[in-house]
């Protein structure tokens, strides 16, 4: 069954954006704290299109994302901008032939920091923005390189709440080890925060005092959510779920919730079965991973962007724990497969 088509305008209080996958790629949709899709944020195109890596602006008006729109292949992405109300026109921000991904807006909205393949490896770049007459950000000048490495892919940037520093993961192309790094947004030498060997997709907390990231759990073959203090100390596990891999954490505006993409893999083949949104309430003891599935049907979702306003905690805490939600998803997928429809990716 394909995802439902939305007709109503996106409500002002929509606070979660994600990529919803379907037969023709993936589009950005607005969902609520019950997991229901409220509206489509980006339209599907006649050709296969994938919109991904969404990030919300600090003023709540804009979403920056990566997309293969106007490019020749699914893996060739540029940066785009869209307003947070359904029907807002899309604006392309980068036009270089490189692969541009992982965009994050600075708190003042004057820059977008992102990863680009314009060099020998993926490096971090910065694009200055200025508001046009309608208040919509638009590029000014050419992108500037922030990092340069001949052996590290520098990915998944996160700008600190004070706008002074950028946090990112550095993946060694030779050893495939990854660590977290920190550097001044104005430039300079980066500082290594963690030793790895597989620290991924970091994100500053709203107060800048903590960092959430993804990393394996020793002795288990899965990736879970972790945190460290902003200086790299006090490494701790946020939540453990052996059945799935959680990556790409993002914090709610009040620092209470951490959302991530959770990928359930086949025990036999290790291949992905379903990607979905998952989250943890940091006030809950013990910590519990919960899934945010559409209550009408289970569809593949990945990546989350959260508005700079408080989420409805009561509705979120009513969502099922991850394992219960996955049991439902697997059951529905099996029923669809038995009907000859297969599992939708």
Secondary structure: elements and pairs:
Layout: E1 16-22, E2 25-31, E3 37-40, E4 49-56, E5 62-67, E6 78-83, E7 90-92, E8 100-105, E9 111-116, E10 123-131, E11 137-139, E12 144-145, E13 152-159, E14 165-172, E15 178-184, E16 191-192, E17 200-204, E18 210-216, E19 223-229, E20 236-239, E21 244-251, E22 257-265, E23 272-281, E24 289-292, E25 301-306, H1 313-316, H2 322-338
Parallel strand pairs: 2-4
Antiparallel strand pairs: 1-2, 1-25, 2-3, 4-5, 5-6, 6-7, 8-9, 9-10, 10-11, 10-12, 13-14, 14-15, 15-16, 17-18, 18-19, 19-20, 21-22, 22-23, 23-24
CATH class: Mainly Beta
CATH topology: Neuraminidase
Q: Specify the number of helices.
A: 2
The dominant shape is: globular
Describe the structure.
The chain is mostly beta strands. It has a single domain (16-338), classed as TolB, C-terminal domain (Neuraminidase), CATH 2.120.10.30. It is 6% helix and 44% strand. The protein is built from two helices and 25 strands. It has helices at residues 313-316, 322-338; strands spanning 16-22, 25-31, 37-40, 49-56, 62-67, 78-83, 90-92, 100-105, 111-116, 123-131, 137-139, 144-145, 152-159, 165-172, 178-184, 191-192, 200-204, 210-216, 223-229, 236-239, 244-251, 257-265, 272-281, 289-292, 301-306. Strands 1, 2, 3, 4, 5, 6, 7 and 25 form an eight-stranded mixed beta sheet that branches. Strands 8, 9, 10, 11 and 12 form a five-stranded antiparallel beta sheet that branches. A four-stranded antiparallel beta sheet has the order 13-14-15-16, with no helix packed on it. The longest helix has 17 residues, at 322-338. It is globular, with a radius of gyration of 19 Å. Residues 1-12 have low confidence and may be disordered.
